[in-house]
Amino acid sequence: MRTQASILAIALGCALVAVTALVAEHGSTRATTVDRPRPAGAALVERDERPLPAVAEQLTAPESGLAPAELVSRQPSQDETRRPSSPSTLDDELQRARELGLVDDLRLAEFLARLEVERGQPRRALELLREYESKDPDVWWLVVQEFMHAADPVGLREAVLAALEVQPDDEGLMELLIQVDPGLAVSRLQLQLALASPEDQGEARARLAAALVGSERLTEARLLIDAMLAEQADDDRAIQLLSAVDPALAMAHVERLMPSDSSPEDLCHTLIDLWTGMGNVAGAESLLDRLANEGQTIGPEEWGQVAEAWMNTGQNERARAAFLRALAEEQGDPDEWVHALADLAPAELLTALERRVARDASNNDEYWGSLADAYWAAGRPADARSAWERARALDQDDEEWPRRLQAFDEGEDPFGD
Predict the structure, then answer these.
(1) Can you state the angle between helices 153-166 and 122-131, rounded to 10 degrees?
(2) 268: how many CB neighbours lie within 10 A of its CB?
(3) Per-residue pLDDT reduced to its tens digit, 200-220
(4) Confidence grade of residue 5 (pLDDT, cut at 50, 70, 90)
(5) Burial zone of 415 (CB within 10 Å; 0-12 exposed, 13-18 middle, 19+ buried)
(6) Contact 228, 206 (CB under 8 A)
(7) 342 class by beta-carbon count within 10 Å (0-12 exposed, 13-18 middle, 19+ buried)
(8) Residue 299 pLDDT more than 80?
């Protein structure tokens, strides 16, 4: 205990030494044109004529964490600057700094709270923030996070509640409150919903529904989710909440919307997210096949999304197949799928690109450029040059193809840029 007190005293002393320097600079009478004697050989040091805020910044930041603009609230009066300097204790210097307006008790308390957090003493930091009524959200979050690291659920609950008094709309704090005291979190959100203005009721309802789901009060959550979907059937947040309650019901709801919705692609992405979120990538892939057979348009982005999901599970062979399907569906720039396949299956990529430009008599310069890149990677420079020439002929405004050809003709690496 004595060691901790000593550490705190040293830290406070460091801060007050900086304050003492500030006070001394303003309390001493400045010399005019008369040079003071100095020891022989000593270098002439020019006087620091910067304004006080600049000196304060050097002395107090970044070590103290205190903003100079907050420390220096006013310039000392002429009488104060004439006050003679005299030996004093740190307490005296602190009092004098307060009188000069150099130190603010609240900022000093927040500074000390940060030190307490660094020392692993979040409860003392919490007491300081409460006592001095700090409104700084960053310091409050430091204290909350320290209680989390300390695995102190009682202290965490106390800190979260105190921080919510400062930041009542902070979703992160509310999520923590749901974890440490779900009943209280729901009660608070119910009150917020009751008091919300008409334009804010949708957001308040969604937050309460999420809290009910997190508290496993699923029947109550369903009532709110149904109300959200009644207002907006494709409300993505409501669909995600419904998937947490009943995944099959959420997917059936989305599929019912697809034929009549103005953005079926977005709903398709939502369905893929629901399947992959459950760890069932094969289900997402089967979904795309089924929708395609039913006449739904499945674009390259959807197949790419499934391919990425397979990659994330380490199923590279299935990812390769999905990327090839994305490439087959792509009508624009195929770069995203080409880059993925260049690593997974370079030989199949080359064959697919050759087949694509031959089958479609492609007038897409991007496909010819990708084919040229694949030829180059396969060690076929003459074919690469011919494909780049075709790409340049198709789109003379694209600077990429002339640049590749110029580097090639000059004997340099076309990809050296």
Answers:
(1) 30
(2) 25
(3) 998 899 999 999 998 889 999
(4) very low
(5) exposed
(6) yes
(7) middle
(8) yes
Average pLDDT (52-73) is: 42
Q: Is the pLDDT of residue 309 over 60?
A: yes
Question: For tokens 């391919």, what's the residue?
Answer: 307
Residue 41: pLDDT above 50?
no
Residue that finishes a domain, picked among 41, 72, 103 = 103
pLDDT per residue over 178-205, tens digit each? 888 988 999 999 998 999 999 999 889 9
Q: Domain residues for 69?
A: 1-24+51-103
Residue 196, phi then psi, degrees to nearest 5: -70, 145
316 and 386, same domain (yes or no): no
4 & 91 share domain: yes
Tell me the CA distances in angstroms from 103 to 17, 46, 96, 133, one per residue in order: 12, 27, 9, 17
- Domain for residue 158, yes or no? no
| C-alpha to C-alpha distance for 261 and 149, rounded to whole angstroms | 46
- Are 393 and 378 in a shared domain? yes
- Distance between CA 304 and CA 290 in Å, rounded? 17
Place of tokens 């004529």: 49
Enter the pTM of the model.
0.58
Residue where one domain finishes, among candidates 308, 329, 350: 329
- CA geometry: angle 278, 217, 154, nearest 5 deg: 100
User: How many folded domains does the chain comprise?
Assistant: 3
Residue 361 inside a domain? The answer is: yes
CATH of the domain at 386: 1.25.40.10
Residue 6: C-alpha distances to residues 28, 124, 143, 257, 397 (Å)? 31, 15, 22, 67, 72
Render 61-111 in DSSP notation, one character per residue.
TTTT---HHHH--SPPPHHHHTSPP----HHHHHHHHHHHT---HHHHHHH
